[in-house]
Each structure stands twice: as structure tokens, then as C-alpha cells.
Amino acid sequence: MSFSSETRKKTIKEIKTNQLDVLIIGGGITGAGVAIQASAAGMKTALIEMQDFAEGTSSRSTKLVHGGIRYLKTFDVEVVSDTVTERAVVQSIAPHIPKPAPMLLPIYDEANSTFNMFSVKVAMDLYDQLANVTGSKYANYTLTTEEVLKRQPYLKKDGLLGGGVYLDYKSNDARLVIENVKQAAADGGHMLSRVKAIGFIYNQDGQIEGVNAKDLVTNEVFDIKANLVINTGGPWVDQIRQLDKSKEVIPQMRPTKGIHLVVNSSKLPVPQPTYLDTGKNDGRMFFVVPRENKTYFGTTDTDYQGDYLNPMVEKEDVDYLLECVNYRYPGANITLADVESSWVGLRPLISTNGGSDYNGGDNGKITDDSFTKVVDIVTKYKEKMVDRFAVEDVLSSLESELSEGEDNPSAVSRGSDLTREEDGLITLSGGKITDYRKMAEGALILIQKLLKSEFQKEYTLVDSKTYQVSGGKMNPQKVEETLAELVEAGIDKGLTEKEATYLADLYGTNAPLVFSKAKEMKAFPGLGLGESLSLDYAMNEEMTLTPADFLSRRTNHILFMRDSLDAVKEPVIEAMADRLKWTQEEKSNYITALNKEINNSDLTELKGER
């Protein structure tokens, strides 16, 4: 099945003339998760996204399927249990995307450190039990000061007590979205990027029965009729709710801004992802992650009230992160000039919920007395002196000193919320990437119930815990073996080992389709065969409409392949202009948009100020 600019035209024609069961507004990870489950159940489903899929927030995360070990500082066992359980589900339904990447957590003798060597071991042991990796090759372990420095000699030595290592996963956030979207399309869903909801359609009872939409490619305005409309707009949730100007909408979102900076790995060599206290006594931690011969670090966490479509990396953001990374890695001496690329995103946080930011907030700082009781009971449990009921009894009676408040954006909830409003609009908001499938499952249970009770339509939901996304049709326990076989298949088609490895890792079990044209296809001028196959597949099967779609979200050229970006940029533009038959005006507009995205990533404006 093709999923391209040509099928897009047919899709728009179909949704203009057919009554849908479910219309999803928002094509980030939450909307994609709803779309795949609804389409798999046979519901007549459509999704509209005003930008490219994942462009708003879901391509701008820390790019980890994170287990949330910091929650165990406050012994929020239920949250960690949910997170690591759901992480395992994501790894099983999209096995080619999350990759195991044990995380190093250096421990320093500093005031207000998140962990000490004793508490980190308690936390990691509990974490492993919750993640069900105790006794496996991914079980946690501690390192001495000397062992930590042997791995990371650039780390600050003063005050270093040692470290802990526990299981975490690297991920590709934008690829996770597009693989869910592609599977939804394969199952009959109508998936559309660059279509914006501009108003609601109401029936005589004042209930929403569809959306007035605008195709941002052609500027055509049309109606989409649906039994149910669900808002999965991420940070834009409130703006979508406010499309009805006749009613007052109480905002429920409080977005925060996070940024990440990328440098060459030679400038900051780290062998594995690392999670550190900032050293600024601000209660936050940050990540330093190796990826594709680069190292990136982040993130900040500040309230945001600016332009949601165009959040920018500001001088204060950069100064903060550079200060943090240079404090922890004093030999690196990283400056703004060393930053090769960057990204900035908005977290769709819910303002009214008590909860925690998985990248560094608290959902209640427990008292010293309670903390001592927890450490004592967990120690006794490990020594088989008490049973788990004794542990649960202590955990259930913790005394807290809530730290959330108006001045602490990191304390705003990362929880999710599912609400149906008086006019029938369903809103699914908040959450984080790791929870997307579970959030969507909750929404689908509600949608299934409403379709039956209000529209007499019955559907059976799939088991979303086992329903694999496009490209992920493999045994989750044999990912390395499967990818190795795919690489061999690519080499047999005439690709180099490097090209075949890159494509197999990117496309999973869709790689054979990518490889299938290798012997017959002539490479696009200026591109190698592997890159040409990737671009061809992206245009035919991944609704890639612009150069930025390909270079930023279908691949990682802008972020992690900056060295070769300038060489491939023009050939990609020319190949797409020829294939998609752009007018000169369209081509010029796409080039302008691409250059703007590259300049923003390069921090061109900031670098020009210094």
C-alpha cells in the first residue's frame, strides 16, 4: 500500500464524502497511538495534523524511552512500575525503535544530591524488580570512583563517590510516530498531515459532529463529518478546545520548554547515556547521550507562553546547559561555537494535577523521617527479614512535603487526562511518549463504549500490547538477529554494509521493501544508492511532502548528521521537486522553510550575536 502525496489527494476526497466513526485532531505520538488502535479495530478513522507528523512535540523529546528512576527518590513505586512496564510494551510493539542503552548515574558528595551510593543501590534494585530485569544481563550494578572515571575521564573528579548503572533505552521519537501512522494507514485509517482544524460542526443538539478543516497545501476548506472527535493536540490542546468561540474554555495545559544541544563526540566523548545532577543545587538533572558519532545533552525545563509553532532556543537556555555540562565535564570546555545542532520542544504538561516531570521534577518531597523508614524497611526486605506487605505498609503511609507550586514548572504533572466535554469533544492530554499506547488504550475503551451507546456501532478492540507497528513485525527477543539478517539481505542487493545497516536500523522489517529497488533504481544525482532508496521510500510510503520532513523527521540529518547535511541538501530538494512536480514557487517556499529549520538548529542567530 502506498502512503504518498498521491494517496493524500484520494484520502481527502474520501473523508469529504464519508461519515467517520472517529476523527483525531493532532498527529503527534498520542494521536498516532489512538489512530493505530482505532484503525486496527475496524473503526472508520481519520487523523489530521496541521504540520508534518510528529513535527510539533513528538520529534523534540530527549529521545529516550525512559524508565523514570528519579521517581524512586520519592519512592513513587506505582509511577515507576507503570513506566517500566509500558516501556517493555513499547519495545515489544516497535522492537526496531527503542534500543537498550544502560544508563550511568554518577554520584557526587554534594548538598541536595538526588542519590547517594546507598540510596541509588536501593533505588536500582527496586527499579530492576519493577522492570523485571533482575538476574538478566541488564541488571544494575555499582561502580567505584576509579571505574566511573575509567569510563568517563572527562567527568569532574572532585566529590565523585562512584556511580550506578541501570537499564534505559535510546529511541527515535519521530520514527515511532511515523511507524504508528503508517500502520494505521495500512489498516484503513485516513492519515493526513498539513490539514488544520479551523472550526467545529454541530448538530441541532449542540453536539460536535465533525470539523471544518483547511488543507494547508492547497488552501482548500472542507468539512469532515464524524460520530466522535478526539483532541490529541499536545501543547495545542487548549487552542483546539477554544475553536468554539461561543463558550468559555478554562485552560488545562501549562507547557514547559526543553532544549537539547549536539556536539561532535570528539568534543565530549561518553561511552553510554549518563544522567547527572546539574550541580547547581536546583533540584534538576540532565542527560548526556552519545548518538551517531555525536553527543547531545539536555534538557532545560522552563515555563513557556510564546509562539507554540516556533519555540526558539534562547541565550539563557544555552548558557544554562553549557554551564551544567562544563561543570560536570570541566575538561570539555564546550562553547556555543562547538554546538553543531539543537532542538527545542514543548512538553504538554497538565497544570492542575499533582505529579512529576520525568526529567527532574518532584511530586512531593518526603520528610527525612519517612525517607529513613523507607530505606530501613527496603533494606530489611532485601535481607528477607520482612515481607513485601510490610514494605507496602510503609510506602502507603509516607508523609510528604509537597514541592509543587506556581514557581516550579518541573513539578507540574506528566500525568494524562481523558475528558469528554459537554459538546461531545473528547480530549486526551498530557502524558509522555513512554505512555502513549496506554493513554490511547484508555481513549479507545471510551470511544468503543460511546459508539455502541450513542451510535449503535460495535467494535472489538485489538490487544494493543501485542499489536506491532509498521516495521516492527519481528520477535522482540531477537531484534539483533533479525536486523543482522536484514543487513545481509541489503548487502545481497548491492548495498554496502554501512548503507544496509543504516537502512535496516531505520526501517526494521520494512527494509526489504526499501532494498527491493536497489538493483533497478538509478541513484538520484548527488546521492548514494542507500540515501536514494531511503528518499524514494520516504516519498512513496511515508507521506514525505517537504525536504524538512525527510531531513529532520524521517531521518536525522539535521540533528545528528550535520557533517553531511550540506552535501545532501540540494540533491534531496532536486529529487523531490522532480518527483512531486513542484512549481518554482513551491520549490522556493520549501527551500526557505528548510533553511529556516537548519538555521534554527544551527543556532545561527545566537552565534551571530557573539
Automatic annotation (TrEMBL):
UniProt keyword list: FAD, Flavoprotein, Glycerol metabolism, Membrane, Oxidoreductase, Transmembrane, Transmembrane helix
Example GO BP: glycerol-3-phosphate catabolic process
Catalytic activity: sn-glycerol 3-phosphate + O2 = dihydroxyacetone phosphate + H2O2
Domain called FAD dependent oxidoreductase: residue spans: 21-351
Annotated ranges, domain Alpha-glycerophosphate oxidase C-terminal: 465-587
The keyword Transmembrane helix is assigned to this record: yes
InterPro entries linked: DAO_C, DAO_C_sf, FAD-dep_OxRdtase, FAD/NAD-bd_sf, G3P_DH_FAD-dep
Protein name stated in the entry: Alpha-glycerophosphate oxidase
Source organism of this protein record: Carnobacterium iners
Phylogenetic placement of the source organism: Bacteria, Bacillati, Bacillota, Bacilli, Lactobacillales
